[in-house]
Amino acid sequence: MIRFYSDTSPLQRPDTDEDVLLDEDGGFSLVVWNDDVNSFDWVIKALVEICGQTEEQAEQCALIIHMRGKYAVKHGGFETLKPLCDGIKDRGINATIEEVAL
Length: 102
Description:
The chain has 102 residues and is an alpha+beta fold. Helix content is 38%, strand content 18%. The protein has helices at 40-51, 55-68, 78-90, and strands spanning 28-33, 70-76, 95-99. A three-stranded antiparallel beta sheet has the order 2-1-3.
């Protein structure tokens, strides 16, 4: 199951009937979505400056985003990924944080 947490903190997650142990240090992915607005160069620049990727890594991610419609560009804990997601969204690029299915 994938849950989207683009604007909530882990402490505000909806209650579920599932007994799931979440790995708070790595149970989430930062997903960047394709659009028809932002250029490859703009997305690459954002991934380098915000996510700390190399130019080559960012270029490969941008190509995958373009071809598949979305791509998980970084994995980690919610609290680590939230500021990165916000930074990407501040540049007009659609991004979400998704819980990794166990």
